[in-house]
Design brief:
By secondary structure, the protein is α/β, with parallel strands linked by helices. It contains 19 helices and 25 strands. Strands 3-2-4-1-10-9-11-15 form an eight-stranded antiparallel β-sheet, with helices on one face. Helix 4 crosses helix 5 and helix 16 packs parallel to helix 19. About 55% of the residues are buried. The mean pLDDT is about 90. The structure holds fructose -6-phosphate. The site of fructose -6-phosphate has 15 residues, from helix 9 and helix 16. Fructose -6-phosphate binds next to helix 9 and helix 16.
């Protein structure tokens, strides 16, 4: 999604803005641009990549500027729709993330007042509104302009002749990076990590006036103080570290991520979250909400919590939950979001809070919007995830769920001890899957020839099938559907033939026999079957055309090893097909619009 950056200091702004924009490329975008104040405002922008812009842009000069990577919502990717946008005089420039819902109305009013618009974007009304209210106090003009605006925004405003930047946020993240006689602004931490690890997270409703040596933040016209935070991960962690793609690096980081996330909890003096909601025996149920891959973690979480804690769990898509007539008022909810900024997830959290639910956020980003809205936050320790396709963050989410469920489990001591030991062995089990990469590569070569595939599983392996299909479709562009294995015969069988392989996830649990039956049914319809099964399972070899093995684990941990195998399968398939693995077409890392 869109990314924004700003710089004010004593250095040339242009190279810093371009470097910072390059660090936001992973979020997904289609156009980019920068504006620098050097006497007048100089703007360079176009559809395309930051690298292309960098090649053609002249030296702009100037030590204050703003930049943007745009992911098109209102209007196609083009030079005119790219940010920054200007007012009529060309003296006020704005970059914006978010969506202005009432922009059409405001645009009509501004046109009637004599303003000219050049783009199709919602953003362009912002510089014009600021121009309308500007009488020499830029901060005030921005505050007044934003009173007219309905929607979400993170903005940076640059004005000719002003040695300051004005920033504001509502429902879209924005941070200020603190330097020595220089300050940085960005929508996301990686943009500024080369320059500083000291940050301030702006809150919704904040308007800040930033100079090279001062930061003044106001909320509803009253000056407020915002705490300084230290970012614990380094710029190197956001590099490829010798791997061909971020995705491959992040898949290989998973043993460490498991260790870090579990280690955090094991060493905690207090329970990781005050889950009175789980301890409450009168509890009717609880909710777990999320989108995309995080939703698949939520579905696995349902099985884990129901099994270990013994309460009823509803796992729902946050994007759909927002339209449900009922919420389960009064119960507890867990919300899972890697970025902590997914618009639908944040909306669901606010809805839950509105009806009195206690909400726990599981998120990877310290200071993210989700962590601010939640009553309690459980941080995953995945480190920066750059590849658009989520891998290690999913793993860290599973670890958080295992640990939460084990902390509040109602199982006997023997099983608890055995599972706790099993949890600690997971890093080495995952390493064994990674070491099996060559075998998975062979299967990927085979899979890459097809245009359609099904992933099937039962029980706790059903969400794994959904995740395997999501990974394959998003990075290899093969049409893949995750399906409950027992449901294929209720319709999708019509699609099975020799050109539609089925990847069957076979866990050694109470679903095992039924899965074998389902595989036979699929084979009888002529579809090739790739089975994912435990080492040593000879029965599967006789049934399936191809087998990927994973090391034995307790069935409750099977999503861990199976998912890693499917991540590698998707990765190598996409590589075989020559796809842009880290930045798949049309996708964004952090989905900050509904
Ligand atoms: C898929 C993927 C997305 C995200 C989804 C939710 O690989 O990464 O499906 O899982 O956009 O994002 P978060 O977890 O940041 O809320």
């Amino acid at each position: 999604m869109c990314g924004i950056v700003g710089y004010i200091g004593e250095r040339q702004a242009q190279p810093i803005l371009l470097t910072s924009l390059g660090k936001l490329e992973y979020r997904g975008y289609d156009s980019c641009g920068i504006a620098v104040a050097a006497g007048n405002i100089k703007v360079h922008k176009d559809a395309g990549r930051v690298g292309e812009l960098t090649k053609v842009i002249p030296q702009l000069g100037g030590t204050v500027g703003i930049g943007h990577t745009r992911w098109a919502t209102h209007g196609e990717p083009s030079q005119v729709n790219a940010h920054p946008h200007l007012d009529c005089s060309g003296r006020i420039a704005v970059v914006h993330n978010g969506i202005i819902n009432n922009f059409l109305l405001l645009k009509q009013q501004l046109i009637a007042e004599g303003h000219n618009f050049v783009s199709e974007t919602d953003t362009e009304i912002i510089p014009h509104l600021i121009e309308k209210y500007y009488d020499g106090d830029l901060g005030k003009a921005v505050e007044t302009a934003l009173c007219d605006v309905e929607g979400s925004y993170a903005i940076i405003v640059l004005a000719a002749g002003e040695s300051k930047l004005v920033v504001a946020r509502k429902d879209s993240p924005l941070i200020i990076g603190l330097g020595d006689r220089e300050n940085f602004i960005a929508s996301d931490v990686p943009a500024i990590l080369d320059y500083t690890n000291r940050v301030i997270y702006l809150e919704d409703g904040d308007v800040g006036v930033i100079t090279l040596d001062s930061i003044k933040i106001r909320q509803e016209g009253v000056e407020v103080a915002r705490e300084e935070h230290k970012i614990l991960w380094s710029a190197e962690e956001a590099q490829k570290g010798g791997y061909e793609h971020f995705m491959l690096k992040e898949i290989h980081e998973q043993p460490k991520v498991i260790r870090n996330t579990i280690g955090e909890y094991v060493s905690a003096a207090e329970p990781v979250a005050d889950l009175a909601i789980m301890a409450d025996t009168n509890l009717e149920g609880m909710l777990i909400l999320a989108c995309g891959t995080s939703y698949h973690a939520a579905l696995v979480g349902k099985y884990i919590v129901e099994d270990l804690v013994g309460i009823l769990v509803r796992a729902e898509l946050a994007s759909e939950f927002n339209y449900y007539p009922q919420t389960l008022a009064g119960t507890g909810a867990i919300v899972i979001t890697q970025s902590g900024e997914t618009a639908d997830t944040l909306k669901a959290m606010k809805r839950l809070k509105g009806v009195g639910c206690r909400v726990i956020a599981i998120t990877n980003v310290v200071g993210s919007s989700a962590s601010r809205i939640a009553d309690h936050t459980v941080y995953t320790r995945a480190g920066p995830e750059i590849s658009v396709a989520a891998t290690k963050s999913f793993m860290a989410q599973l670890m958080a769920l295992y640990w939460l469920a084990l902390s509040y489990s109602r199982i006997d001591t023997r099983r608890l001890d055995s599972l706790t030991m099993g949890l600690r062995q997971l890093p080495s089990k995952v390493q064994q899957v990674l070491d099996n990469g060559d075998r998975i590569k062979e299967c990927a070569k085979y899979l890459s020839r097809y245009e359609n595939a099904f992933f099937t599983g039962r029980g706790i392996s059903f969400p794994v099938a959904l995740e395997g299909a999501l990974k394959l479709k998003e990075i290899s562009y093969i049409h893949a559907e995750g399906y409950a294995a027992g449901e294929l015969k209720h319709g999708p069988f019509a699609l099975l033939d020799k050109n539609t392989p089925v990847i069957a996830i076979v866990a050694q649990d109470n679903t095992y026999e039924a899965m074998l039956t389902n595989i036979k049914e699929v084979k009888a319809r002529g579809s090739p079957v790739v089975a994912l099964a435990e080492e040593g399972n000879e029965t599967i070899r006789e049934l399936a055309d191809s087998v990927i093995t994973v090391p034995p684990v307790d069935a409750i941990f099977s999503p861990v090893v199976n998912t890693v195998a499917l991540q590698l399968l998707a990765y190598y398939t996409a590589k075989q097909r020559g796809c842009p693995i880290d930045f798949p077409r049309n996708l964004a890392k952090s989905v900050t619009v509904e």
